[in-house]
Structures are given as structure tokens and as C-alpha cells.
Amino acid sequence: MAITEAHAGRSYPPTAPYVVSAAKIAEFAAAIKDLNPAYAGPEPIAPPTFVVVISSAAWQAMFDDPDLDLALRRVVHADQRFDYRRPLRTGDTVTARLTINKVRARGAADIISSSVEVETVAGELVCTASATFLHSHEPAA
Amino acid sequence: MSGLTTADVEVGTQLPPLTVHLTRADLVRYAGASTDFNPIHYSERFAAQVGLPDVVAHGMLTMAGALRVVTDWVGDPARVTSYFARFTRPVVVPDDDTGAEVRFSAAVTAVDGDLVTIGIDAVSAAVKVLGAARAEVDLGPRG
Asked: FAS1-like dehydratase domain: from which residue to which, for each copy (chain A) (predicted)?
């Protein structure tokens, strides 16, 4: 099978709960070379783009879906949007749930619009991470 | 923290620019921190197989750098309410000590009450690497 427009609306179960830690925030802030004091100390908030640490687990569920037959080597991350209700903080326990919003065929590629809702285990929406992926078709042999 | 309010900004207000260098070591570090281990970010062989000129930076790493222009200016990153970027061109990272240079510049493009929209440009090797990048920040009073 391959991904088609009919896969719009498909969603995946929430990812396993992820506990945001001061150590991981510090590691991520160092990796993006961001010395903002809000990311340091005993009770830091996470950098806004830290959300990818959590959303990438949800993307993986889609990439691994055998019905879609996606190949990571043919996937390009085309754009990314984040809508924040609040920052992630140390001690938040969150899950990520991916929905495929739309699939469009364009030439030799499919354009996949997806959104990931990052929620605390108590059900509070923290951030929605919306991504567009381009998936190019296998070249004809 | 910055005491920036909407009284300090208008459409066209420029933010202090920022230049970052990304080396192969930075990509390895970001791969581990972000858990994005796509080999195009560390293997020349794999990058060539998928038609890239060389190892390229994670789009999300460039996006993170671009947002620093905004959060350095606004002070408190919790004021960011939304952020968008299109990954138009890859940042090619050579295997040397200097790496790739990415220059970020930004300006206020809209003010709507306490909500301020900032457009960000990101340029590496004379090409724009992010498209339509924009962040919204809430400069309203904080309780």
C-alpha cells in the first residue's frame, strides 16, 4: 500500500508518557547554544522548539505505519509550526498524539500535513506542532 | 528579564541580528539532544545517496537558532505563542573547524494589541534557508 488522500483523518495512539527533566532541557539548550537563563536553574522551562523531542516520537508512529509505506530516506520536512498554550516545564509528564490532516499528491511526491497535540497526562493541551512532510515516490525502475 | 512592552515596538522595529556557526560536532550534539538521528546530518555517504551536496544541518536546529533572535530580544521565552518556518534550502555543513555560518535578522511585521509578529530571515552561503519564518510573542502584562 501507499499513502493516499484517503489517509486524511488517521490518527495514532498517544506516545508513552514523557517526563520533562531539567537535565534534558539543559542538554537541549546547550545543543541549540541558547544561554537564556529561563532554561537553567532547578525549575527551568524548555526552549520552545524542545517540543520536537516529544513530537518526533509521534512522527515515528506515522513513518512506521505499514499501511502508508513511507521511506524515511524519501521524506523531507517541509515546514513546521508550533502553537503554544504555555511552555513545557520541568516535571511535566506529556504525551503526543499525531493526526494526518491532509494528503495531497503533487507530481512525484505526496504532501502530508500533520499535527501533533502535546498534552499533559492530566489532559491539558500544552502545544500543537503542525508539520508538512514531502514524501517522494520511489523512482520507476 | 526584559521589560519590553508594546509601547517599545512598531511595525518595522529591527531586532538585534545574530550569527551562528554550525559545525559537524554541533550537528552530532543536536542529533543526540533532539533524538533526530537521520544520517543526512552526519554521513556524507548517505547525504550523497539522497542527492544532497554534503551533510546538512537539521532544519529544526536552524529554526531553533532563528528563534533565539526573538527570545534574546523579548527576554522571557514563555512569551512566544506561535512559531512557523518553511525549510526552503538546506544549511550545508562542511567537515572543517568553521562549519556553516547562518545569519539571522528579524523585524516586527505586525502589532495587534499585545500580540507582536516578528518576521525572521535566515541566510547561509548567500541563500535563504528558511521561508516565511515568523514568531508571535505576547507582550502583555505578566501576573
From this structure: 7-128
